[in-house]
């Protein structure tokens, strides 16, 4: 048997950034799928654009920082940061070309055929449309614009991260001088999609705001001739660097860094294809952008506007029927949440089942006179969070409320600072996490005084306490009043608020302390069982897999004969089909209407199977640099439900992409197989389970409250 060190050869691994690009291509393949309703395809294309923006601001920015710092250590695939950037440069340009080919060749003609004309260039407007657009500019746009010229007294303006701008070259009338540069930001406070009269063809017509401005740009520079004007957009380094040991007040330090995010180093420039070379040279030089970081775009910059186009009325027949999360059978009758949890552990499967019981759990705890304390971790919450409101109310009602708000949750820092201040104002004890670690675990503890003494109720989950994303992300939650888990939950919060960790744990496993070792032990146990003549089987579902120690252990298990079935939505640095190494491993990625987010782990354990759920992916950051929780699902009925979830996903033939030995992904070959969409199956099951619980003589059905929440992608 080969030694474990053989499994660390860089040839056995895929670079994580290149694997992420393959994930975004899988999302793009949904935008290209003719079987999917047209407006859903718009949405998927929009998601690929917002994904790519974040990838540049964080991952590409981080690699550029490494190169600038002369950091030459290689990743698990044997690539330096500079080599990764070289490879990424090729594949990201290819990806952007595919995005715009999808938009121009496929989606635009289909939109027109279905009654929505997108006027691409203002020169294409009819006489009536042109008059309408000019009047719209005068009344709505002109007063908001701030044109900025550049000359000896006015330096090149600061261009905000991700903002859309129009650059222009001007010449003074009646003078033959040098061309002058000017720019105007396309205001984000105005709708980018402008409805205009449809013309003779009927249907609806729209034009983009930048075209409206470009058509009237001469109005902004009255003493000049506009030689040319073109839109451009920049992406800046948005990776916050916070030295927590030096930061006396983490809240203030993060606020300071957030301001810098708008003005970080420019790392990507998108320009309209065919931009005047003189104009491009000025922008490129002023922003210190390298040639390879310039993207010449054949179409509108920033395709995230397609998410707003999805919201246009009158095209419901071109969208999927909206699914409404179903009531959880255990909560459909009236009665206390605590009574229901005492009857037995309860499993929640979002978004197929509603998130309302979790909100109800915290609301009831806030109002219940017998509840003494509520403790909760918050990583990302919605814009108008009912959970924040309930926690604030609990503190006002005199309960001990401790909330860990993770200030370092990327791109939610600002939001979380607001919530932290609001909770402190209400009287909650707010903890800002441990130095150097993000707290990514999802746990709520409610301490209640009952007739037979103090009882602890716990909610554990794989997803955030966010009622908005709970309608879009697939996650697992469990509610329990198990004494062992209650003790562990208390220990978790004591650890987070500053006490040392306990000597031993009953049921929960935590990162960064013991979780990685736990996973390595569970994988190793399957190897031992196989070598002892038993069968070995691992099924693991997660968002990302790139931890080298875990992958090496999986390779060793595969070589020993353990059957390994992985369901990995995003990054996967493991390779399949390597002779003698990974022949017993299969990897599938499911990209569908809902974002796959739950983390589930199954180990056969010689017939005494163990099932776990948790907040951690198999990534170094989750296992080594974050506070994460893994919890067992032990109740036989709940265990069966979780195994059913894995089984249904392994049967998917519609949304599953299978990893190939050459590193590419292919949709399942459906020949001879049933057409089976796992997410649709879960929707149907949730509706049937709720319907079965309804009784004709019982009108006490629990109706989940509707919560107002901000739109999230």
TrEMBL record:
Residues that hold ATP according to the record: 51, 473, 569, 597
Question: Which cofactors must be present for this protein to function?
Answer: Mg(2+)
Q: Give me the stretches of Basic and acidic residues compositional bias.
A: 694-713
Matching entries from SUPFAM superfamilies are given as: Phospholipase D/nuclease, PHP14-like, PPK N-terminal domain-like
The record's account of how the chain is modified after translation: An intermediate of this reaction is the autophosphorylated ppk in which a phosphate is covalently linked to a histidine residue through a N-P bond.
Gene Ontology CC terms, in alphabetical order? polyphosphate kinase complex
UniProtKB keywords: ATP-binding, Kinase, Magnesium, Metal-binding, Nucleotide-binding, Phosphoprotein, Transferase
- EC class of the enzyme, as a word: transferase
Give every Polyphosphate kinase middle domain span: 129-309
Identify the residues that bind Mg(2+): 380, 410
Catalytic activity field = [phosphate](n) + ATP = [phosphate](n+1) + ADP
Q: Which GO-annotated molecular functions does the record name?
A: ATP binding; metal ion binding; polyphosphate kinase activity
Checking PANTHER family in the record gives: POLYPHOSPHATE KINASE (PTHR30218)
What does this protein's UniProt record list under function?
Answer: Catalyzes the reversible transfer of the terminal phosphate of ATP to form a long-chain polyphosphate (polyP).
Q: Which family does it belong to?
A: Belongs to the polyphosphate kinase 1 (PPK1) family.
Q: What name does the UniProt record give this protein?
A: Polyphosphate kinase
Give the organism, scientific name: Eisenbergiella porci
């Amino acid at each position: 048997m080969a030694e474990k060190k053989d499994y660390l050869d860089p040839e056995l691994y895929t670079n994580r950034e290149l694997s992420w690009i393959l994930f975004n291509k899988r999302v793009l393949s949904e935008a290209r799928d003719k079987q999917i309703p047209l407006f859903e395809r718009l949405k998927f294309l929009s998601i690929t654009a917002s994904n790519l923006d974040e990838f540049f601001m964080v991952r590409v920015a981080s690699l550029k920082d490494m190169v600038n710092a002369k950091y030459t250590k290689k990743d698990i695939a044997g690539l330096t940061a500079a080599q990764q950037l070289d490879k990424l440069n090729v594949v990201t340009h290819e990806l952007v070309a595919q995005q715009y080919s999808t938009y121009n060749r496929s989606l635009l003609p289909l939109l027109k055929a279905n009654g929505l004309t997108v006027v691409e260039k203002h020169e294409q407007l009819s006489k009536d449309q042109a008059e309408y657009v000019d009047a719209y500019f005068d009344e709505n746009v002109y007063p908001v614009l701030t044109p900025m010229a550049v000359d000896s007294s006015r330096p090149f303006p600061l261009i905000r991260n991700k903002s859309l701008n129009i650059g222009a070259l001007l010449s003074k009338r009646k003078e033959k001088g040098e061309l002058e540069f000017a720019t105007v930001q396309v205001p984000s406070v105005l709708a980018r999609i402008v409805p205009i009269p449809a013309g003779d063809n009927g249907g609806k017509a729209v034009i983009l705001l930048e075209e409206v401005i470009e058509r009237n740009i001469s109005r902004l520079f009255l003493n000049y001739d506009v030689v040319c004007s073109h839109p451009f957009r920049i992406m800046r380094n948005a990776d916050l660097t916070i030295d927590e040991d030096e930061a006396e007040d983490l809240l203030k330090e993060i606020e300071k860094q957030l301001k810098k995010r708008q003005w970080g180093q420019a790392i990507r420039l998108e320009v309209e294809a065919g931009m005047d070379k003189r104009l491009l040279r000025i922008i490129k030089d002023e922003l210190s952008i390298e040639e390879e970081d310039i993207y010449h775009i054949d179409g509108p910059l920033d395709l995230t506007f397609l998410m707003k186009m999805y919201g246009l009325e009158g095209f419901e027949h071109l969208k999927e029927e909206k699914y409404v999360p179903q009531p959880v059978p255990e909560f459909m009758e009236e009665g206390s949440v605590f009574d229901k949890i005492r009857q037995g552990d309860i499993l929640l499967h979002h978004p197929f089942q509603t998130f309302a019981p979790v909100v109800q759990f915290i609301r009831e705890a806030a109002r219940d006179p017998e509840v003494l304390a509520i403790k909760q971790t918050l990583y990302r919450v919605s814009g108008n969070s009912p959970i924040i409101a309930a926690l604030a109310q609990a503190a006002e009602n005199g309960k001990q409320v401790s909330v860990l708000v993770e200030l370092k949750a990327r791109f939610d820092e600002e939001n979380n600072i607001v919530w932290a201040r609001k909770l402190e104002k209400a009287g909650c004890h707010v903890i800002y996490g441990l130095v150097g670690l993000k707290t990514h675990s999802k746990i709520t503890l409610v301490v209640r005084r009952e007739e037979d003494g103090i009882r602890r109720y716990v909610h554990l989950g794989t997803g955030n306490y966010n009622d908005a994303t709970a309608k879009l992300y697939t996650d697992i939650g469990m509610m329990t009043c198990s004494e062992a888990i209650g003790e562990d939950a208390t220990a978790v919060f004591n650890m987070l608020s500053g006490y040392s960790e306990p000597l031993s744990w009953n049921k929960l496993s935590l990162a960064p302390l013991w979780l990685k070792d736990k996973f390595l032990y569970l994988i190793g146990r399957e190897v031992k069982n196989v070598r002892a003549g038993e069968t070995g089987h691992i099924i693991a579902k997660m968002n990302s897999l790139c931890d080298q120690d875990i992958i090496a252990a999986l390779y060793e298990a595969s070589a020993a004969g353990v059957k390994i079935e992985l369901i990995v939505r995003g990054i996967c640095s493991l390779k399949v089909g390597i002779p003698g190494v990974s022949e017993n491993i299969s990897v599938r990625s499911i990209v569908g209407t809902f974002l796959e987010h739950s983390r589930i782990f199954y180990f056969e354990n010689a017939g005494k199977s163990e099932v776990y759920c948790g907040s951690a992916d198999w990534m170094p950051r989750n296992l080594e640099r974050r506070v994460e929780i893994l919890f067992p699902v032990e109740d036989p009925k709940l265990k069966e439900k979780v195994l059913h979830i894995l089984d249904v996903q392994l049967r998917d033939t519609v949304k599953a992409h299978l990893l190939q030995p050459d590193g590419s992904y292919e949709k399942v070959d459906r020949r001879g197989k049933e057409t089976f969409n796992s997410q649709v199956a879960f929707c149907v099951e949730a509706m049937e389970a709720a319907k079965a619980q309804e009784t004709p003589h019982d009108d006490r059905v629990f109706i989940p409250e509707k919560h107002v929440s901000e739109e999230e992608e």
